[in-house]
């Protein structure tokens, strides 16, 4: 049996065993963990065992008193009746489990005493009053002894198990120590334990070899004195102080002095084991010989120095950290200094653009150990550069992954490659679109490359069909190929070599060749390239030109006009026979001679002056000249050039004589006209008055020479004899300019002073030799006296006739009065009945029209809307379930329904023109046009249309109908436009009794045969496929114009636009916008 002292001793040993050889805690079993809290509690009292025992027994008594207190509280609250030992049972169980048999037994006895004195009767004395209470007491005592004994057995078994586990653990620890010691002894890395006083403790064989001392010698030396050189002792002291202060292992480099006096560089990893008093107990060190590493580092430094003189950017970075080296090449390439770069993550510093995701890049690098490719970096000054990068993954001496990155700037090369690529693409594009043929052949004359134009030119289906053939087979005469190569060898390249080529189908054509050799990088000839131009047309043109030149030469020689050419030295270089004969020479005799020497008679004349001016000023001269060597006139045209002048002349003697005679005749005619008693006026075809004689000036009272006809009419108005005005172009002058003869037409003339005189006028057109009207002559006389005499005679005859008629009519009137009264009464009754019948018909007609409008707007449109809606619903719902034909049928239904709706809308609008009556009101036509432009905005913008208008008057009318009128005409002008954007102009001309509006466009025009019928309802000149519409728009326009007291017509020429004119009655015109009327 193990007592409490044994338990404390075992626990103490367990605690002491926690300081292992390498400060490694020994792990205990799961069972020892379960009693950990108990052991810790014992630890608190293991220094005074008896105090711990007293605590156990006092705790047992206190727990029983606590149970009694709870029992008393419950009895006070709920009354008597609780079982006596209900709270003492668990208290005894807890004490027994915690502290074993002794405290459990004390807890049992204490519970019995408390129950007997304070719970069981008689209370207050230690006695039992009833057998039942006695039995209960005995049972409780038996239970307490039994549970205490069981708990004690449990505790003893657990202590034995823990002791056994500890023994096993200590055995395992000893084995582990022996194993570790064996590993250390045979390890290739030196290991040693040193004490603060300089003695060496444990060390292995590798340590002996490193220092050169034997084991016996090392056990007798002071490690800090014998092994550590003087210059390293201060550093080592600092590192050991750091170890004492922080308790963390330290790593540092120094040297050992070997037994033979040589030195070896080492790196130490030192940790400390502290004694219970807090002082260092010993140091244990792992030593590494770093001789090779230092040599490698020196090599690395030398390599780094070499890297710094490299033109390439070379730097290294830790696999998961920043840059650790940065050479001069990197500084030059990127602009970052070594200090600026070290420590930064390379792809953040350089803003690296990887060709793949960075995480994928790292995976490839780690898997393959290297990576090569192109990256895009950003330099310090913000420039983007392309680098050719090679990256190698290595491990340093400590096992860290290091990436060595070598980058070469290839930005310029990439630009050149891009330029080359662009150039090649451009070359390929040019080659593909080349009109001339391009052919390459190797040194054996076999075709290796051709342009598409070459295949087309030689009648091959594709360029590939030409490749592989011999180039000489493309020549009709294969000797031409040999001759071409011979010229190439002599000249290096051949231009404009003409030959006859042979197509695949055997036909020939003329070609011009440009050829040169192709060389490789060593300058060796690899073949030839040829550009081929088809000059068949040029050859034909040259042939035709030669024929034409010969014809021209023959013609020049045969014509009667003078033609000659003179060079800049005034020598004849060409002269035809007519010109040579005129000055007494043959043409061959003048060639090469100086004009001023050969024809000295012209020196100092107007001819020399004009020739020299033409030569000096380089300007064409046209002049007439009376020759000094013959009695004749010549007309010369002189054409200058850099080489000299070309002279074209002809004999105009007859024309000059005719002009003189014509001048005499004109003077004679003018005299006749000026003395003529009739007024004579000549008006040119453009309306300008070119002549008016004195008599006309006297009658008009002003001189209208030089005026245009409209201005003259405004100043002196000619009207019909009844006082009404002529329409535009309908007067005698206008009709004459149209080719009509006007004879003895009576008119009245309003002079500027208001005087009105009657005149008798005639007019006739004047034609030129081409039978074209060039002017009109108007002749009229003042017939005031004749009219006065006629009026006097007419009045006398009328008065005589009136008297006779009055006498004979008196009786007839008396007889007819009664009859007329009867007839008038009957006529009035019939007229009234007819009027009532007409009113009834009109009412019926209006009612029918209203019913039609209702049907059109409701009964007809509603089914159409249903057709269109349900058809569109079908399209949306079954769009992907129908074939193309079904989709087309749906489109036809929707389009037809829409056309029917448009037709009904137009019919409705047409019918409402008579059924809807709106009060006429003043309309600003320009404002109405602005509204129309707004309504047609999308159509105007879509067709890039332009709408202009002159100042327009204000009229009385129906505003909506006037807007509808202009909108229909302008929308038609936009719809029926030609190839150029639509241009529409609206004009207005105010007359005495009406205003004429015009809508002019530059569209496709209307055939004259159709200009009447287009105003009929449903009349279309084009198919719906060509132009949309219902054919009612112009009928609506006509109905609106007629409702406003006017008429509408069109003037058009097919292909040259149209002008739609319509009039508004004068009683609809309010005032003109310019205030002149």
From TrEMBL:
Sequence intervals crossing the membrane: 49-74, 86-114, 134-154
Matches recorded under Pfam families: DUF4118, HATPase_c, HisKA, PAS_4, PAS_9
Keyword Kinase (UniProt): yes
GO CC entries: membrane
Cellular location(s): Membrane
EC number, UniProt record: 2.7.13.3
Record membrane topology: Multi-pass membrane protein
Protein name: histidine kinase
Organism of this sequence: Methanobacterium lacus (strain AL-21)
């Amino acid at each position: 049996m193990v007592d409490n002292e044994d338990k404390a001793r075992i626990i103490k040993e367990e605690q002491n065993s926690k300081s292992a050889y390498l400060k490694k805690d020994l792990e205990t079993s799961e069972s020892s963990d379960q009693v950990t809290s108990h052991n810790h509690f014992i630890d608190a009292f293991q220094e005074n065992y008896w105090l711990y025992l007293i605590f156990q027994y006092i705790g047992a008594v206190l727990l029983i008193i606590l149970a009694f207190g709870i029992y008393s509280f419950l009895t006070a609250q709920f009354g008597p009746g609780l079982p006596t030992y209900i709270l003492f049972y668990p208290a005894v169980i807890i004490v027994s489990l915690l502290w074993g048999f002794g405290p459990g037994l004390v807890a049992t006895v204490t519970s019995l005493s408390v129950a007997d004195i304070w719970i069981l009767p008689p209370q207050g004395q230690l006695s039992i009053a009833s057998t039942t209470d006695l039995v209960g007491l005995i049972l409780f005592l038996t239970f307490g002894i039994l549970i205490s004994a069981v708990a004690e057995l449990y505790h003893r078994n657990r202590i034995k198990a823990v002791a056994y586990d500890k023994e096993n653990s200590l055995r395992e620890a000893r084995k582990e120590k022996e194993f570790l010691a064996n590993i250390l002894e045979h390890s290739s890395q030196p290991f040693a334990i040193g004490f603060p006083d300089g003695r060496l403790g444990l060390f292995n064989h590798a340590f002996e070899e490193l220092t050169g001392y034997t084991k016996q010698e090392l056990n007798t030396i002071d490690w800090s004195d014998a092994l550590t050189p003087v210059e390293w002792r201060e550093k080592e002291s600092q590192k050991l102080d750091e170890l004492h202060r922080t308790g963390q292992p330290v790593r540092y480099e120094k040297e050992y002095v070997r037994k033979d006096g040589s030195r070896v560089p080492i790196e130490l990893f030192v940790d400390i084991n502290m004694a219970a008093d807090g002082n260092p107990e010993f140091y244990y060190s792992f030593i590494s010989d770093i001789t090779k590493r230092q040599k490698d580092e020196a090599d690395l430094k030398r390599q780094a120095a070499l890297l710094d003189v490299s033109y390439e950017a070379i730097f290294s970075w830790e696999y998961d950290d920043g840059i650790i080296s940065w050479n001069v090449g990197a500084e030059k390439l990127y602009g970052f200094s070594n200090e600026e770069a070290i420590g930064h993550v390379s792809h953040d510093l350089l803003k690296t653009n990887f060709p793949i995701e960075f995480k994928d890049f790292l995976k490839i690098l780690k898997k393959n150990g290297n990576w090569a490719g192109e990256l895009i970096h950003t330099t310090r000054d913000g420039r983007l550069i392309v680098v050719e990068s090679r990256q190698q993954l290595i491990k340093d001496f400590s096992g860290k992954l290091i990436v060595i990155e070598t980058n070469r700037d290839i930005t310029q090369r990439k630009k050149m490659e891009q330029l080359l690529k662009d150039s090649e693409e451009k070359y390929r594009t040019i080659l593909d679109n080349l009109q001339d043929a391009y052919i390459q052949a190797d040194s054996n004359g076999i075709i290796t490359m051709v342009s598409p134009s070459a295949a087309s030119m030689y009648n091959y289906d594709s360029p590939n069909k030409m490749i592989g053939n011999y180039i000489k087979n493309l020549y009709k005469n294969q000797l031409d190929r040999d001759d071409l190569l011979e010229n190439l060898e002599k000249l290096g390249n051949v231009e404009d070599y003409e030959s006859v080529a042979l197509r695949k189908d055997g036909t020939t054509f003329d070609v011009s060749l440009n050829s040169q050799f192709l060389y490789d990088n060593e300058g060796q000839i690899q073949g030839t390239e040829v550009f081929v131009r088809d000059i068949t047309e040029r050859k034909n043109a040259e042939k035709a030109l030669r024929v034409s030149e010969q014809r021209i030469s023959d013609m020049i020689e045969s014509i009667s006009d003078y033609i000659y050419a003179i060079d800049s030295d005034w020598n004849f270089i060409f002269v035809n026979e007519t010109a040579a004969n005129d000055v007494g020479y043959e043409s061959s005799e003048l060639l090469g001679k100086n004009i001023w020497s050969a024809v000295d008679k012209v020196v100092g004349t107007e001819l020399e002056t004009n020739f020299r001016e033409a030569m000096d000023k380089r300007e064409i001269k046209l002049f007439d000249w009376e020759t000094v060597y013959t009695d004749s006139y010549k007309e010369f045209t002189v054409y200058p050039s850099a080489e000299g002048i070309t002279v074209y002349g002809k004999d105009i003697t007859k024309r000059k004589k005719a002009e003189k005679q014509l001048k005499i005749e004109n003077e004679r005619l003018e005299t006749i006209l000026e003395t003529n008693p009739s007024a004579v006026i000549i008006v040119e075809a453009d309306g300008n008055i070119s002549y008016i004689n004195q008599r006309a000036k006297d009658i008009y009272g002003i001189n209208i020479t030089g005026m245009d006809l409209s201005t003259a009419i405004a100043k002196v108005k000619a009207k019909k004899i009844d006082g009404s005005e002529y329409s535009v172009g309908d007067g005698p002058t206008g009709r004459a300019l149209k080719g009509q003869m006007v004879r003895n037409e009576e008119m009245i003339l309003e002079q500027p002073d208001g005087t009105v005189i009657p005149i008798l006028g005639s007019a006739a057109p004047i034609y030129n030799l081409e039978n074209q009207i060039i002017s009109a002559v108007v002749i009229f006389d003042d017939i005031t006296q004749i009219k006065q005499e006629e009026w006097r005679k007419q009045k006398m005859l009328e008065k005589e006739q009136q008297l006779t008629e009055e006498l004979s009519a008196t009786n007839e009137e008396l007889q007819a009065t009664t009859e007329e009264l009867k007839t008038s009464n009957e006529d009035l009754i019939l007229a009234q009945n007819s009027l009532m019948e007409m009113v009834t018909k009109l009412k019926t007609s209006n009612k029918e029209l209203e019913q039609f409008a209702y049907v059109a707007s409701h009964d007809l449109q509603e089914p159409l809307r249903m057709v269109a809606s349900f058809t569109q619903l079908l399209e949306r719902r079954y769009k992907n379930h129908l074939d193309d034909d079904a989709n087309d049928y749906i489109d036809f239904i929707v389009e037809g329904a829409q056309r029917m709706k448009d037709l009904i809308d137009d019919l409705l609008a047409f019918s409402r023109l008579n059924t809807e009556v709106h009060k006429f009101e003043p309309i600003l036509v320009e404002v109405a046009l602005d509204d129309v432009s707004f309504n047609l905005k999308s159509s105007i913008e879509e067709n890039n249309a332009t709408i202009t208008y002159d100042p327009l008057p204000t009229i009385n009318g129906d505003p909506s109908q006037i807007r509808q009128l202009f909108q229909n005409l302008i929308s038609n002008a936009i719809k029926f436009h030609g190839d150029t954007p639509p241009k529409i102009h609206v004009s207005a001309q105010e007359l005495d009794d009406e205003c004429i509006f015009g809508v002019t466009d530059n569209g496709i025009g209307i055939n004259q045969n159709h200009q009447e019928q287009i105003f009929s309802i449903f009349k279309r000149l084009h198919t719906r496929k060509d132009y949309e519409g219902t054919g009612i728009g112009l009928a609506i326009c006509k109905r609106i114009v007629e409702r406003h007291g006017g008429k509408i017509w069109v003037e058009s020429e097919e292909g040259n636009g149209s002008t739609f004119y319509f009039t508004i009655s004068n009683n609809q015109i309010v005032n003109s916008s310019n205030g002149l009327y």
